[in-house]
Amino acid sequence: MPLIYTGSFAGALHEWSQIFNPPKEDVYSLFLDRRLTTSRTCWLLWAAVLTVAALPGYSWWLAQGRRLRLLTRGSGSLLLIMIVTYVIASRLPGLGQRMSQEVSLWLNADGYHGVSIGDDGWLFRTQELDRLTQRRDVPGLTDEVIRLKNSLKEGDVHLMLLTVPDKLMLYPEPILPAKYWAPVLPPGYHSALERLRSAGVDVLDFTDKLWDERRRQPLYFKQDSHWRAEAMKELAVQVSRHIRKTYPKAVNDQTPLVDAEFIERQDLGDLASALTSSEPENHWSAESTQMVGLRGLHGSIKSSVLVIGGDLVNVFDDPNLSFGPGAPTDAPASFPIQLGSLLGHGLDVIDESQTSELTSRSVGKKLVVWVVRAGDL
Question: SS3 of 39, please?
Fold first, then answer.
């Protein structure tokens, strides 16, 4: 049968091998076979059903009263016009973004904006699910990372990129119950990593390691978008080993004098708080995490290592983020602190949103470590 279908022996052999050796499960096979989707896609499917139902020509509709047929056709036509208008406007700069926000707020008037609900109390950023199932509207950070790498060549500064797998990549079961043999990667992820490596960026991707590690310890909160202290500490250890081996000049072999403090934090989670517009504590139970804070390891702009990152880098030290310090006197415990303790000195830290300062801040450094969510590439 494969020979008849393909018309060549080579094609038949390939088809035969695919039957007994199916390709590695990826997001495309999941979407096609198990209908992995988002609420936005569901709305479009319902809109398509109503539009089709409004079209003339079906004998059942022709047998109905004229008033019912006109009402149905009118509703379907209006809905079709709204869809076409939304699609056209969404492609226009500025207007499309504002219109998309208005529609999202209208569809999520009760506080569901930006949050997707999974099984067993798991919550996810809708952005992560959209990244797996929809064509992205804005470019990722890949080009920006390559531009920074090119700007650092003259100063002989090395750039390392640490990709942190998204929550949905490691825990897809609550969204789509199935048997997963590997993490679910967003489209174009491997090609983005290859582009970065070809440009000379030192890329560290521990997604497969964390996939195995998730069976031994929790890596993400159920009700929060950030990694747990266990995942942060594991990646800090892996990154420090790589730096010690590859960039020994960025390491201080003398052990710094620090005071360790055991910390336990509790929070409802940013996703749970966003999902419930008022009094979320009446609907959700707080989650807890344990970590070690370190006093005496102060960051400095003069440090030889610069860490670039957003909320993942600052989550346990920023009081404006979930699981932040309860008091100003709490010992710092974020990723730069954990990594700095393993490298023997404090690190310089800058937010990734300060793009205009990235190049100037990197002058005189030996190493720049950029921490990004995998889905943002």
Answer: helix
